[in-house]
Amino acid sequence: MDEKRPDTAAPEAASPRRNTYVWVIFGISFLMIFIALGYGSSTKGTFLTAVTGSLGLKRSLFTVSDSLRYITTAVMSFFLGRTVEKLGLRKMAGFGFGFLMASFLISSFATDYWHFYIGGALLGAGLCWTTTSMVGNLVENWFTNGKGTIMGFLLAANGLGGFTSEFIVTKIIYGADGSLPYELSRWRLAYRIIAVLFAVTGVLAVLLIRNRPSDIGLEPLGRDRARKARRGLDWEGRGMAEIVRKPYFYVSAVCVFFTGFVLQSMGNISKPYMYDLGFDKNYVIVIFASHAILLMISKTLAGIGYDTLGMKKTFFACCVCAMGALASLCFLAPEHPLPAWIYSIISSFGMPLETVMIPLLVSFMFGKKAYKKVFGYYLAFNTLGYACGVPLANLAYDIQGTYRYMIFFLAAVMLAVTVIQQLSMSAAEKDRLAFMNQTAKNQTEN
């Protein structure tokens, strides 16, 4: 169907279709997150040890590819609003999965650092156009209330994808019993199989995605119930010219940067750290498979928490879990499995800070009017944090021979983020209430 076709259907005719096609959008969004993040991002720790061990590469230099990935995502996110308006979400998804497929194919033939650097840049481009930004815009267009719960369910697909990839990809690389040494590992085959998954998902996305309901004569789901929503209620918000004059816009953006810095570093180094300490590979598979399942649950609960408890309480709970996860890493030892399981459980409930909570944070603090632009900027700040954190964490390993001291540093940074972001949200909430009261007063006077 033509994405630009005007809305010509009567509301009565649109209602039955609205209640069906919106779930097609939900389904393809879930599949995109499941494949793109579950197999394109969650597997990075598995590939890290296999590739560097096989080719004799330094981890710090190899993870420059992650920095290029994140920098590419950040740059593209700055122009997200304009790109959505120009290309539309369907075309973006097609190009995005094309980038992902090219990234993994190039990496599968790689023999030196620069091959992985090209693959990393393409991976960043692909994930930018197929994951959080894509789903955030689809939810914004197709749903009017309960957005936190919807985003939570959709981004939970990352956990389910990570759960399946943890078993499948690790078995492909190291063999069914996990006994293949690094020099015999089949990481090239794993890259190629995942590239095929990207190709199939991209075709489905292009066939099924519609930019907005009005393109096919429908209305967003929940419009008639929007006023009944307790939390996460739409509000018009300020324009970008006003937002950039608010100090809390910049303070919150810095916190989003360091949230990405901490969480991506933690996620990147936790599995290699366990391998370095002598944990059995099959045991680590079980730990991270459990983590992936819990991640699916945690993102769903984070979305529900936003709709029921509010943004600040949900955000605070996630921060506490992230700090607890970092503390548990300090006590890892193969002979004492409890800290590893504590990490597996509570880290899952900290990870929504870099996925579910970002679009909801933007909606909570700034409203709808400048949503696409602010969302793009905040995704950019978040991924710039990834770009800085991951290589610095691995540089610390190359210098010190352990990740332990970096973990202490990450915990301190997370504590600061927790406090400062709460203050910025309180300032935004106070400003929002003043804005809405003034708007209501002006309407009454008119």
Instruction: Look at the helices and sheets and give the structural class.
Output: mainly alpha
Contiguous uncertain segments of 5+ residues: 1-18, 225-232
Helical content band = over 70%
What's the count of strands?
0
What is the approximate shape?
A: globular
> How far is the N terminus from the C terminus?
43 Å
What radius of gyration results from the CA coordinates?
A: 22 Å
Largest sheet: none
Compile the SSE list and pairings.
Layout: H1 11-40, H2 44-55, H3 59-62, H4 64-78, H5 80-87, H6 89-108, H7 113-128, H8 132-142, H9 147-155, H10 157-174, H11 187-208, H12 240-243, H13 247-277, H14 281-308, H15 311-329, H16 338-346, H17 357-366, H18 371-400, H19 404-445
Description:
By secondary structure, the protein is an all-alpha fold. Helix 6 runs antiparallel to helix 7, helix 15 packs antiparallel against helix 16 and helix 17 packs across helix 18. The longest helix has 42 residues. It starts with 10 loop residues before the first helix and ends with a helix.
